[in-house]
Amino acid sequence: MRASPEHLASAVDALLKQSELSREETQRRFEQAFDVDRWRRLAPFASIGSGRWDDGEASSISDSAADREKRRLDEDGYFRLPQVFDSARIARMRRIVEAVRADGWPVAFAFVFDDFWTIARSPRIASFLGKALGEAYLQNTVVWAHWVPGERGVAGWSPHEDYRDVGDTFLSVWIPLSDATVENGCMFLLPGASSREISMATEERRDLPPTVFRRALQDVIALPASAGSMIGWRGDVLHWGGANTGGSEPRLSLALEFRARGAKASRFESPLIDPRAPLPPFRLRLFAIVKALREYTKFEPMLTRYLPLAERIFAETAEASLSSSNAPRAS
């Protein structure tokens, strides 16, 4: 007798519940999360609270590449810039992610370190983001780090949009810390009008006409990207992480989000920060991490085990989000 989908889902939920951190482990992790010196000992080659906007390491985007990718962004809703960041910096950031994971934390906790907040602040990156969003653009506090194991059949996040009906006022930025290939599950997307049509049909659970389905398959764009590249897309572009088809290396990456100043932002994005201001304080970094963790169990169910910890940290750091005054508050 085969179990129904409902029974299987219930069984999975029960297993995930059983995997939650114990009360004792949650308390221990809660105390460790706020121990800045412990984080520094975990990755002594990295900094927390250095106070510097940019560590001086090079990022490279030629004027011609910036112009070309701005046109692609305007026409198709995405951009791809190869080999933007200094290789030593990317190697250091990968070591941070590996250290955080080895210590039993979700890899998004790498965002307690300065590198993950300064990486998009170099003059060349700021110039490109300014062209895409307007010179006074802001960063929201939705951040994430990805670790997709190098095992056949494992996939990144399922197809989704970030924000609908935001036009050119929003931009997601995705930076690989390891080579993202077709074999280990690089990013894929549907540009332009195809994204909206597929998203609406999925949301409404209706069938697509065969002609639309065939066109969408042919419109899919793979975005393999070497470590240190930078790719991104507008909020209404359907995108997803591919499945590993035999690559043995894990895929590591980080994600950031930016808004045009004055644009209406969601409450989830709040607080917005000015990337020209000092780096976010430590408690605001923790708030951003657990805010996302609470939301992203829908993409990574195994994170459910950390939810009690995330809820405690969220409650403890909520005041930090309210006291942030770098930028206007979201609507």
UniProtKB/TrEMBL annotation:
Pfam families: PhyH
Top-level lineage group: Bacteria
Keyword annotations: Dioxygenase, Oxidoreductase
InterPro entries referenced in this protein's UniProt entry, alphabetically: Phytyl_CoA_dOase-like
GO MF terms held by the record: dioxygenase activity
Entry protein name: Phytanoyl-CoA dioxygenase family protein
